[in-house]
Amino acid sequence: MITERSMNIIVTAGGTSEPIDNVRRIANTGTGRLGSLVADELAEADWTDHIFYVCAKDSIRPVSKRVTCVEIQSVADLQEAVTELTKKYVIHGVVHSMAVSDYKVRSVSTIDSLSEYLEKRSAETGDLQKKIVQGMDETDLREGVGKLSSQMGAPLLLLEPTPKILPMFREMAPQAVIIGFKLLSQVSVEELFDTAHRLLVKNRCDFVLANDMTEIDENHHRGYLIDPKETYRPLTRSRRSQRELFKQYTVRWNTDEEKYNIRCYRKYCSL
Description:
Layout: E1 7-13, E2 17-19, E3 25-27, H1 33-44, E4 48-56, E5 67-72, H2 75-88, E6 93-96, E7 103-110, H3 111-120, H4 128-138, E8 155-161, H5 166-172, E9 177-184, H6 189-203, E10 207-217, E11 220-226, E12 232-236, H7 239-253
Parallel strand pairs: 1-4, 1-6, 4-5, 6-9, 9-10
Antiparallel strand pairs: 2-3, 7-8, 10-11, 11-12
Helix pairs in contact: 1-7
């Protein structure tokens, strides 16, 4: 039976960044504002023990002293942090609100360097796409260089996908309630919900919070909490909204039933 102060929760927030060189990075623009509110609300609950706030360096931080901040930058850092936490603690809940980079830099070249490489191999047969990728790798200017010169000319960046973090949570914390996030822009409500539900099913999440960029600004953040039965509940960024939301999670996280079904989510239910 779960007792008071026994729940360990991971909240991820902010945006990861991937290095171009030792100075420059490409980054997602997540602020961590929503994640910080979530962490602070969890800190007020009498059923939480450890709350780990895994965040980017410039993310907004929770106010509560009960929250432990774990700072990361890249997706690799995030993987390492999550792996260490799940090894050391039994994790009961994950709120994965971080804007994780979809791509990292594989190599950096220039138009001139790549053109020269391809010209030397113009007589060779084979797939052009593979030649371009090979050319980018073999003319990578980062080899042995800490900072790329600003005089190198127009840079070409070859990106490659980063590992997906959401399915990793289910593998490392099979007992946890996992809440994923899905952000789209300028799509219909139907497309937003369908995409969020596919994410939920594919990654075995318990809930997914669906957002549209057009409904987010400095003073307003509207999201829709999707459950496995494709019902949803509109949520806004307010302390009342967060409190009501986590009352429902309290029910889930304090039950011994493996597949407790929260039926409080109804279409067009207002706060």
